[in-house]
Every structure is written in structure tokens, then in C-alpha cells.
Amino acid sequence: MLLPTTVVGSWPVPEWLERLKTDHHRGRISRTQLDDVHETAIKAALKDQELAGVDIVSDGELRRDNDVDHFLARMPGVVLPLPVKEFYYDYHTVTLPAPLPPVDGPTLGLADDFAFTRAHTDRPIKFSFTGPFSLAQRVVEHPYADRAELVVAIAAVLHAEAVALAARGATHLQIDEPYLAGHPQAIAEAVAAVNVVVEGVAVRWGLHVCYGNRYARPSWEGHYDFLFPAVLDARVDELVLEFGRKGDEDLPVLAHGGWDRDVGLGVIDVKDPDVESPQTVANRIRRALDLVPAERLVVNPDCGLRNLPAANARAKLAAMVAGAAAVRDTLAAPAPVPDRPAVVAAAG
């Protein structure tokens, strides 16, 4: 399929779910009760994506408080000096008194999260998780000689999760590195850790790099040229980047940098609640086609949809799907046959 549509990962968290998540952290409801609520919310998010026409869906990351705690808090050896949160979306303070223990299989439960999603949709699923570089930035104390060693240690934990996910049937895995844009000098370090995560796991791998999306605000500004040439060594199939908010000026960076694999083209600005028209989406896709062949483009929002009102998110996805379909129909249309003069039979 040309120009398949997908999401980056997260889905809007309704106010009632925010309250219940916070209640759990304050000891007012049990983990079992919260898990039941999560499952209901995930099924609703899947149905919303299906109704919008999205080709490759996600679980909306609705089990996760934020992009960090779901992973770090479950790692053996991690200590949370203050395990109670005032608000579910806050980050835990994370310390690591001793090196992470040797990895002996998955410990984070991501394969079970995926299996639940697989049981509730017949569409392809993209399953994303925060990458080792970004996770390491949230550890305030650790015993390693430098943070680069911590990054590799976390990558080994995530590799075990990736192996388990593939064994449970995952086919599209995505590593999110939202902190990388704030540390462009560390791109080679981050790429080396990405390669630890993906080693030997035969799925379609995406690498998502944005400029942050905390409370619908970018954490950094810049240009994607910092990715090159180091990102060429990343053993991934697709770069998932934001262009809806930033515009097209970074698109030539992909060609000049030598990127010859797929591109997840961000065409929806998730930091602006205004809904793009299908024509706007189609125009953004057509401009990208000047630099990236259609068979290498995947259409998606810039980042996760967590911070948008649900109605706006649904409308934005519907516009994205309609815009992609309009361009796809143009690409699939047969070339017109020029008129030819009629042949007149000779008399006699």
C-alpha cells in the first residue's frame, strides 16, 4: 500500500482517566482496578483510530503515566526515593544505587501490553517504547563511570523486551528518543544504543526523533541536520520525524544526508488544537514526494496525540487519512492517453 497512515504512539488521556491514575498514586484505588480502566480506555482508543481509517494503530500508550516512568520504575535495581506522585503525569525521581543486574529475559511486561492490544484489533499495530538515551537522562544518580555506560545498560534491558515482543507477534516496533534533540552532540552514542536494542530482532524498526512534546510544548528547537551522518549507522527501517509544526525546510536534510530508507512524515501538528484540512495534509505529502519516493513514505502526526482533546485528535486523524487517500488516488490513477486522430478508411 502506498502512503500508509499510522500514529506515533500516545492517545489523548481523558480527564476521568487522569483522575483515576492520580487516585492510584495516592492510594485511593488498587492496581487491579486501574488495570481494568486502562483496558477499557485502550479498546476505545483502538476503535477511534479504526473509525478514522488509520492503517497501523497503537494502544495509545494509555497504561503509561508518561514517556519514562512506565519503563524505569519497572527495571530491577531502580529506586524511587518518593514513590508517591501528586499528579500521575509527573516524573518520578529515579536513582540507581548499583549497576543494573545482568539481563535474564524481559522484566517490563511490554509483551503482555502488546498481546492485549493484538487481541482487540485486526489491524497492524505499531508498538513504541522510549529509547535508552532518553530514559538515561531521567536517572539522577547512578554508579557508572559516565552516562554513556548507563545508556548501554538500559539498551540491554530494552533488547530483552524487543525479543519478547517479537516472540508474541509484534511486527512494527518504534524507539522514541524525545531527549535526543536536546543533546545533539550525543547522536553517535544514542545510535550505538539503538543498535543494541534492535540486534537480531527481525521486525520493522522505526526511530522517532522529535523536539519534545511535554504539555504540547517543544522542549528544544533546531534542525534535523544534527542526525547526520551518525544516524545512517542506525539499523532501523524508518525515521519518524516532525514536519507538520516545523515545516518542510528540514526535508532536504534527508536527501543531502543520504537517508535511503523509509520516512515517517509528520503532517499533523500535535501542539496546535486547530484541525488541518485534508488539502493541507495532501499538500504536505506532495511536497515531500519531491524528495522522497512514495513507496518510502509513511504518513503520521508529528508526535503522540496525548495533549490534544480527544475530539480534535479524532478530527486530525480523519483529515490525515483523507489527505493521504487523495494523494494515493492521484498516484494510482493511470496516465491519460493522448487523443489520436481518427483513421479514415480509403474509399474504393
Automatic annotation (TrEMBL):
InterPro entries: Met_Synth_C/arc, UROD/MetE-like_sf
Cofactor names: Zn(2+)
Keywords: Metal-binding, Zinc
Database matches in SUPFAM superfamilies: UROD/MetE-like
Residues in Cobalamin-independent methionine synthase MetE C-terminal/archaeal domain copies: 3-324
Protein name from the UniProt record: Methionine synthase
